[in-house]
Input
Amino acid sequence: MSQQVDLELAGCLRRLLKSRFIIKAKSENWYRTIVDKQQSLGGFMTAMAAKLIINEQLGVIYLQELDPEIEEKLAYQLGSKMILRKFATHALLIMRKKRSDYFLNPDASGKCFITKQELKELLLPFLEGIEKYKEDKKLELDIREALKELRDLQVIFETGDGSDVYEISPVCDVLLPLEDIEIVERNIMNYMKNAAGDSL
Output
């Protein structure tokens, strides 16, 4: 005898487990469904030692570990972990700052964009003195790889017109809160200095 299945609840759970983030602007129906069903989802989250984070200001939903001590005992992480390489981390920092500046004076679209060329121009001053970036081909390759990493994390979305223009998503704010910007910037600057020193 088949059990009755709440398809909406099952759909919410599967999307939460598969996707790192549910973004309102990209999946409004599922975003709203998860918000409506958050009480029903609570028991499942507790059973997984996870908590459901709904950031309505940013329009982003994601799962977070319930407790670091439990994580240590489980020794099995919640979802697949992705660690950004230093170049992509630097690109993330640039995008986070651009998004912050944009929302001080947003336009009617409410969307913040960055082009590949703009990202390249913002990165260049930090790469001065690093031998391998004196060759434009190496820089282009690393920018392409960084953009792919950030697309996979849903930090940016292609605009769909085949151009090198990307929409910076609110996931950027989740991954790099304002209070962490200074720490990340300091780490990147130290890395760049060391990389420049090594290449001389």
Q: What stands out?
A: Residues 49 and 67 are 7 Å apart (CA to CA). Strands lie at 22-23, 50-55, 60-65, 112-115, 156-158, 165-168.
